[in-house]
Write a structure and sequence with these properties.
The structure holds 3 protein chains of 3 kinds. Chain A has 2 domains: 10-96, 2-Layer Sandwich (Alpha-Beta Plaits), CATH 3.30.70; 167-475, Aldolase class I (TIM Barrel). Chain A contains 16 helices and 23 strands. Helix content of chain A is 30%, strand content 16%. In chain A, strands 11-21-20-18-17-14-13-12 form an 8-stranded parallel sheet. Chain A has a 3-stranded mixed sheet with strand order 6-22-23, covered by helices on one side. A two-stranded antiparallel sheet of chain A has the order 1-4. Chain A has helices at residues 24-28, 55-59, 82-94, 181-194, 229-234, 261-267, 287-300, 317-325, 346-351, 356-369, 387-396, 405-411, 433-436, 441-466, 471-474, 488-494, and strands spanning 10-14, 34-37, 42-45, 65-69, 99-100, 115-117, 138-140, 148-149, 155-156, 163-165, 169-171, 198-199, 216-220, 237-241, 252-254, 275-277, 307-312, 331-335, 344-345, 377-381, 400-403, 481-483, 497-498. Chain B is an alpha+beta fold. Chain B folds into 2 domains: 1-57 and 120-141, 2-Layer Sandwich (Alpha-Beta Plaits); 60-114, Alpha-Beta Plaits, CATH 3.30.70.20. Helix content of chain B is 21%, strand content 23%. Chain B has 5 helices and 8 strands; from the N terminus they run E-H-H-E-E-H-E-E-H-E-E-H-E. Chain B has helices at 16-24, 31-35, 65-69, 94-98, 126-130, and strands spanning 2-6, 45-49, 52-56, 75-78, 81-84, 105-106, 112-113, 136-140. The radius of gyration of chain B is 15 Å and the shape is globular. Chain C is an alpha/beta fold. Chain C is 24% helix and 27% strand. In chain C, the strands form 7 sheets. Chain C has a 5-stranded parallel sheet. A 5-stranded parallel sheet of chain C has the order 9-16-10-11-12, covered by helices on one side. In chain C, helix 6 (184-196) links the parallel strand 11 (168-172) and strand 12. The radius of gyration of chain C is 22 Å and the shape is globular. The two termini of chain C are 33 Å apart. The chains are: A alpha/beta, B alpha+beta, C alpha/beta. The B-C interface holds B 3, 5-8, 47-49, 52, 54-56, 59, 61-62, 65-66, 68-69, 71-73, 87-88, 90-102, 104-106, 141 and C 10, 14, 40, 42-43, 46, 51-52, 56-60, 288-289, 292-293, 296, 315-319, 324, 326, 328, 363-368, 370-371, 374, 386, 391-394, 398, 401-402, 404-409.
Chain lengths: 501, 141, 409
Amino acid sequence: MPINFIHPEYEVIRDFNKCIKCRVCERQCSNEVHKLDPDHNIMTADDSKCVCCHRCVSVCPTKALKIVKSDHTFKTNSNWMPETITEIYRQAESGGVLLSSMGNPKPFPVYWDKILINASQVTNPSIDPLREPMETKTFLGAKPNKIERDKDGRLINNLPPQLELTLPIMFSAMSYGSISYNAHESLARAARELGIYYNTGEGGLHEDFYQYGANTIVQVASGRFGVHKGYLDAAAAVEIKMGQGAKPGIGGHLPGTKIGSDISKTRMIPEGTDAISPAPHHDIYSIEDLRQLVYSLKEATEYKKPVIVKIAAVHNVAAIASGIARSGADIISIDGFRGGTGAAPTRIRDNVGIPIELALASVDERLRAEGIRGNVSLVIGGSVRSSTDVVKAIALGADAVYIGTAALIALGCHLCRSCHTGLCNWGIATQKAELVKRLNPEVGYTRLVNLITAWRHEITELMGCMGINSIEALKGNRLMLRGIGLNEKELEILGIKHAGE
Amino acid sequence: MKRIYVNEKWCLGCHLCEYYCAFANSNIKNMVDALKDVTIRPRIKIEELQSISFAVSCRHCEEPLCVKGCISGALTIKDGVITIDKNKCVGCYTCVLSCPYGAVSPSDHGVMQKCELCTQNGGEPACVKGCINKAIVFEER
Amino acid sequence: MNYVIIGNSAAGIGCVEGIRNIDKDNRITIISDEAQHTYSRPLISYLLEGKTDINRMKYRPDDFYKNNKCDIKLSTRVTSIDNEKKTVSTDKDEIIPYDKLLVATGSRAFVPPFNGLDSVPHYHTFMKLDDALALDNDVKENSRIFIIGAGLIGLKCAESLHYKTKNIIIADLAERILPNVLDNECASIMQQHLEEKGFTFMLADSVEVFEGKTAKMKSGKTIDFDVLIIAVGVRPNTELVKAIGGNVNRGIVIDEHCNTSLPDIYAAGDCTESYDISADVTRILAILPNAYIQGECAGKNMAGSDCIFNKAIPMNATGLLGMHMITAGSYDGVTHIVKSDDTFKKLFVKDNRLVGYIIIGDVLRAGIYTALIRNKTPLDSIDFELIKDKPQLMAFSRTDRAKFLGSVV
């Protein structure tokens, strides 16, 4: 046996005074970390298998468990960090691309946390949201440039199709395949209850979920999986996925082992075959090509549904957005480099793309400058973590936000970033029936509804303290924001003043 | 009346219901003290086979064969809840012979025990509270 | 409306509860020739052992009669029924009118005319509370006990004396113990267990003649004893019904409504015959659950309901000196035997149905088997191999399981 260079990253610490040997940890760990040692009648743990997902910690009835990061160490080196060394060991052993999941965990600046929100004092009154109406309703879609009247002077309804949201939050694209049936059901039910939208991702729409069509955005991606007329008809809007924040510029790969009969049917591909989404759309090499797909989809849906174009936040995002805003798309969605994924090459996830805050500010600025901001609504995603992130995004110019990771965390995700193993202990990023059933949608959807309801309260509270009583009035209102600890260039791109200015 | 219902679709076979049941009926305040190094005798039990699992406890039948057949009068039904008077039970096992669900079993003391919906423990049954996936619910149907 | 119930045991009490289910008010009169508050007959052996006491073995609480608005006449024997005038007469010269009558007269110990029995100073039977109290009085430490009859009554009696004396000899005409409950194979397992605990059996043998406190057996053996207990069987008390022309075979004949052949006269419990659905025969099923359910069924019908009881089967749960045993149904058809370290199990399958079973040892959840017999569940609708191994709901279809556990039953 070759030498194993990898030391376990985490250690399972069990308080044997509290352990009652109920073995729930053993039964609930899909990574087979825990075992009862019958000879000594004690529970044991194999630390090397632990992914730090906290399933055992959460279900242990006597709270006898905790997971700690191993303090096993390499000789201190500020250049060759332990993680870097370990990754080299891993690749020297496997010869393969490093794979990871969920969003970029590296310590890049999080601009949300360097932006502060204003409040009203004396000269303009703040508003108590519990006493006065607060409008969080949001419409997404192209807005007409002018009012048109017929020859009798009556208004002509020239409003293109819109999505109506009770608040400017939607669940972002996560495919059936990358997440489980029950995770999908939870999202769909929550979207319906909340009066918002969830997004199928590129995995097609399971026939059981057509009933949630009025709250569904369906995706058309480079693999075209699961796309057919019924799919487009079922949805409230269609999203063309050009790119994804976690892995801009590359496609997707759902291994054949995850393509069971249900997924095969939903994606319209043979069971057991790999689902490969190409890096580009092979029919799109220009804005003109994109425009063709936008109008094909509009034609197919009789111009009744908004078409969204989703791109990853990359270096020249503003110019690209400008092109998309002229392509006939109704909504542009931009995914920042901290956005999640079910599986991505680690190097891509951690090094490609730009932060969504900067992308949003520059796109909003560019579209305004070009006088085409009204052509499209802007939806941003890629690590919107809280109600304050939402408020800051709206004030920077977004019409709405997509949340993915936050929604999964509400469902139980502990960000162990092991989605790509398919062994998600929380029943979210897995297709194994015995794991999928761990997420009861009844529980899941309630938690999602609770989360968004809580955020709604916080958003109206924040609006109230700014003296703003509608989302519409907050939109692009960068005066409500100030930077803290940002340099001139960052402030310039974000279009905000520094705190104290 | 409110009853315990089990939906095997959501049962994870984690067996926590058994431990919460044993704890609730132990009359000991701390779970560790109650269950450490103890072979539990819960009143709800998991049946499992491969990927299927579900919890079985007294169904509190409307026509309870255990009560009708009880030779000592220890088993009674009141307001729909079937309880056993441990003081009267002699452990003859006629209820074991009668119960179509196999939901009556011997206690540590030889006499029989069964789920009494935690009527003695206050509030919602412990198995329901302890179920991590809402596979066991307590509701009016 | 006057309800009259003759008998104060399981069937009688079942009848009261059946009536009160429907009719909360009309008068119920219970007549019992015993002096006690209703008690559980099968508990008399547990009483002797000290596993219960006279207070705890009450079949229903002290306020039962009051709460159920019953007139209780204890130590009163019904001497006759007048079904024309709809009255019953008692040995206290009372004439009690009824509109609906339940005969739950039970059974009595049968004592065969043994040669020389009158030379024995005293013998016991083991049916009633008084029998148990008398026996308890007579049995001393190390008394030599001779029990005739290795049936359930005889053996439970023997078990209850075991803590006082190990000198217990049990004889039976049959070749095996528990002849009405077990087959040969199972009986020998139980017999071995009991012999290990100190019982002495004399099977396929009977008393030729008694000479005082000595029994001379047909086999030639001689048994000296201090206490003689006769537990060879019981006879149903059918005379009251027979006297007025009611249909009586070995027991009182009743229909599914627990109605006798006479209008407004119902019968329940050990005095009746039941239709055993496991064997498709009519037989006396002198077991408490059957008595209660018949009584309850009769009571509901007496109060005007339309209740049917058509699921009677023989069944027994018994523990003998630490060994548990549960049996039900009839022992007919193909046998399936499952053995483990501590358990011997025999299932009897006939025409795609479980018709009977015997379990000795680990009897947990045996009721699942009982339900198969009672419900005549087609075995091809369940996983028989699974359920054969151990009783479990897993053997049923997902739909059935959902019905069992996810709906009101």
